[in-house]
Amino acid sequence: MNWIEQMLTAAAVIALAAGLAAWLRRKGLAGPAALPAGWRKTRCLESMDRLALGPQHSLHLVRLGGRAILVGRSPSGLTLLESVEWRPSGPEAAQ
To answer: Are 58 and 51 in contact (CB under 8 A)?
Structure first.
């Protein structure tokens, strides 16, 4: 019966740790948002917008570092349409 007690104890410890982690995440004290700003990974590639032109054609606006890239997608592949310096607009510009 000794191994049964050990298994139950281990299961209880794991359940307690999982419950504590979930509670800390809900309170905002754990996870990426809880890290100091300098420790967070900054995203250098971000999809900003997408415009469907048809069932198989679309335009994608992608921010890559300090550049805004407009890419066209079609059944034949991707095409770079434009690449300019990124200038935030709207609520992003106020930050």
So the answer is: yes
What does pTM read for this prediction? Answer: 0.51
The segments of the chain whose pLDDT lies below 50 read none
User: Are residues 31 and 52 both part of a single domain?
Assistant: no
12 burial (CB, 10 Å; 0-12 / 13-18 / 19+) is exposed
Residue with tokens 């890290």: 35
Q: Is residue 93 a part of any domain in this protein? A: no
Res 1: pLDDT: 62
Q: Which two tokens stand for residue 25?
A: 């995440």
3-state SS class at 70: strand
What are the CA-CA distances from residue 91 to residues 62, 69, 88, 94, 95 (Å)?
18, 20, 8, 5, 7
